[in-house]
Amino acid sequence: MKLSYALPLLSLQFLSPSSTNSGVVLASGFSPIKHVTFTQNAIVSRGGSQLSGTALESDVGPSLGVVSAENWDLLSDRGKAALSRLILYDVANGHAQKHVYGDWPEKGTEDEEKRGIAEQIADLDGSYPGGLPAYLSKARTLLKESADGTNPFAEFEAFVPEGESLSYEDPDANPHTGMTFSQAEQAGLTVIGDTVFVLVAGGLGERLGYSGIKLSLETNLVTNKSYLEMYSKYIQAMQRMAHIKTGKDHIRIPLVIMTSDDTDPLTRKLLKDNDNFGFDEGQVTIVKQDKVAALSNGNAALSMKSKWKVETKPHGHGDVHHLLYREGLVDQWYNQGKKYVIFLQDTNALVINSVLPTLGVSIEKGFHMNSICIPRLAGEAAGAIARLEHKSDPEKSLVINVEYNQLDPLLSSQGDCKGDVADPNTGYSPFPGNANNIVIEMGAYERTVRGEDQGVVIEFVNPKYKDDSRTEFKKPTRLECMMQDIPKLFQKEMGSEAKIGFTMFDRWFTFSPAKNSLEAGVEDVSKGGKAPGTMSSAESDKYVQNQRKLKMAGVDLDVTTEEDLVLVSGIPVTPGPRIILCPGFSITQQEVMQKIQGGKITKRSTLVLEGEDLKVKNLDLDGALVIRTGHDCDVTVDGLVVRNKGYELEEVVAGADVPEEVAIRGYTMKKNEAMEIVINEPGKYHIGADGEVKKL
Ligand code: UGB
C-alpha cells in the first residue's frame, strides 16, 4: 500500500438510527426518562418527562397494588426507588416486566430473594445513564426496528474512503502528508510524554477457547511475555524516551484497563503478581464495565436467569468512553495537559508498531480521531471503514466503521450487488479493515464526552430470531455498543469541525490478533483463509515482522513468505528465524537502523534483543541468542559468532491432555540451548566473536 489520499473533511451530521438487516442501532440520549433520583420519600425527575408529578412516591409498588406493603417494607431505600422507576415505566409501557415484580409470594417466603432482586434492579438502574427505564425504552425502539427489518443504510451508499497510508518498507514520503514512515514516527515522538493509553480488556476469550483472561496469554514462547507485560513495557519504553528527550523524569504515561466482571479479578491479580509490570503505584487505573440486562423478546422483557435473578450480558467495548468520563479521568487528563488518548485491544501484539506513526499523522493532519487500518480480507471478521454517502443530503454523509456482519448485506444491496468480496487486482476487500485501535485528540475528546450523551455511544441490537416471523429470539439479546462508533458523538458535539481520519499500514506490520480457537483457525485455513487469527498465527506474525525489520536493517536472513510457512497443528507458521525485538530495544525504525549493522541469521535461529543502548554489528547466529542490557549500559556486540542447539517447536499430539493455553496454540517451545548475555551494571561494554563481555 503506497498511495496517500486526501481524506475529505467529514460533515458529521449523521445521527439517524442505523442498522443492518439483522441489527438496528439508535443514537443515545433519546430516552424520555433521565436522571431520576430518589430523595427520602419521593422520586424526583430531573430532565425527564414521564415520571414528573405527584405519582412519584417511593411506595409505588403498594400504591399501584402490584407489590404488597409487607413485601415492599423488606426492601432497601435504593431497592424501592429503582423498583418504583421500573414499575412506573412498565405501567406506562405495556407491562412487559410484570414477571419481575408482579407475583411475589407473601412476606415470610423468599424474603432474601425479594431484597436481592430489588438490589440487582437498583444496580442495573444505577449503572446505566438514564437508568433501567432508559435502557428498556431504547431497547424497545431498536427491537421494533430490527423486527420490522428497517435498513438504516437505505438512505446511504457505501464508497471506499480515502485516508493516509504509510509503509515501513517504503522510503518515499507519503505525498499527502509529505512524511516518510520514519518521519511520521519522529513526529509522533514529539508528544509521547503527553499520551494516555487505554486497553479494552473486558471481553472473554470465548472464541479463542480460553477461560482465563486474554491479557495473561504469552505473546510468544521465546520470551514468554504476556500481552499485558508487552503493552506495559512498550508504554514504559515510550516514557523512558520522553524522559531522555525532555529531561523531565517526572513524566508518567498513564494506563487504564477496562475490565468486566468476567476479567476484573484476574486482571488485578495479574498486575499484583507481577508488581504492576514496572508501573508506579497509581499509574495503572482499572475501570470496570457493567453488564446490561438481557432481554427475552421484542417488548424488551427482562430475561430471567432464575425467578429472582435478571440475566445480564456484556454491553461491548463502547462502554469505555462513558466510563472514562464517569470516573473523571478525561477531565483529569485534559487538565494535566495530556494531548492524545490511545485505545488498544487486548491481543494484537503488532499494534505497538503503528502507535507512533499514527500519532505523527494525527498531529500533521490535525485529526481528532485516527483509526489504525489494514488491508482487509473479504469476509474477514474485522469491521470496514466506509464512506457512507447520503442519497439526498450530503450533510449527512460520513466516514465510519461498518461492522463485519453489516458489510455484506449493505454491499449486496447496492452497486454491483456482489457483497463483501475481494478486489481481484489486490486480493483484498476494497474497504480498509478496522484494526480497532484508535488515537483520539484529548481536547476534542473532552469536549465530546462532556456533551449530552456523556460518552455513551450509539447502541445496537442483534437478536437471532427463531423464524421469519421475527418475534422470538433463539437466545436472549441485549443492547451493545462499540468504541469505534464515537464519531457519531463527535459529529453531534463538534459538527463539521470534527476531523476524523484513518491511517493504513501493511497487515504484517500492525495486525495479527489472537481471537480464534485452534479448531476454528484450522477450519478457516482449510477453506483457504489466510488470517486464521489463532494464538499460533499471532505468534508467528510477530517473528515475521521482526524478520522484516532486521532484513531492512541489512541482516542476511530469509524473510518468511506465504510459500515458506509450515503447518504446525494445522496452522501455517514461520519456520523461523524467531526474532523478538523488545520495546526496550527499539520503538522506532530509526533505532533499529542505528542499532543493527550487517550480520546473518539462519532460519532455525532464535534471537532476543533488549536494551536501550545495545548495538549489534555483524552477528553470525545459528542457534539461540538472548541479550538483555539495562539502563545506562552502553553495549556494542561486534562479530559475535553463536552456534548452539537453539530452540524448537514441539507440536502437541492431537487429543493430548494439555493445559488450555497450550491447546489453543498447538505446540510448546523446547529450549535446548542458548547463549544468554545479561548486563545490568551501568557502563560501557564490548562483546566480540567469542561472546566474552569486556567492560571498557
Ligand atoms: N471488549 C471489551 O472490553 N468489552 C466487551 O464487552 C467486549 C469486548 P472482540 P470483535 O480487531 O478484527 C472488533 O470481541 O468482535 C474488548 C471490532 O468491533 O475481540 O472481534 C475485548 O477484550 C471490529 O470492527 O471484538 O470486533 C477486546 O480487547 C474489528 O476491528 C476488544 O474489546 C475487530 O475487533 C475487541 O473485542 C478486529
TrEMBL record:
InterPro entries from the UniProt entry: Nucleotide-diphossugar_trans (IPR029044), UDP-sugar_pyrophosphorylase (IPR039741), UDPGP_fam (IPR002618)
EC number: 2.7.7.64
Reactions the enzyme catalyzes: a monosaccharide 1-phosphate + UTP + H(+) = a UDP-monosaccharide + diphosphate
Catalytic EC class: transferase
GO MF term set: UTP-monosaccharide-1-phosphate uridylyltransferase activity
Cofactor dependence: Mn(2+); Mg(2+)
Keywords: Nucleotidyltransferase, Transferase
Nucleotidyltransferase among keywords: yes
A Pfam family hit: UDPGP
SUPFAM superfamilies registered for this protein in UniProt: Nucleotide-diphospho-sugar transferases
Family: Belongs to the USP family.
Protein name: UTP-monosaccharide-1-phosphate uridylyltransferase
Provenance organism: Cyclotella atomus
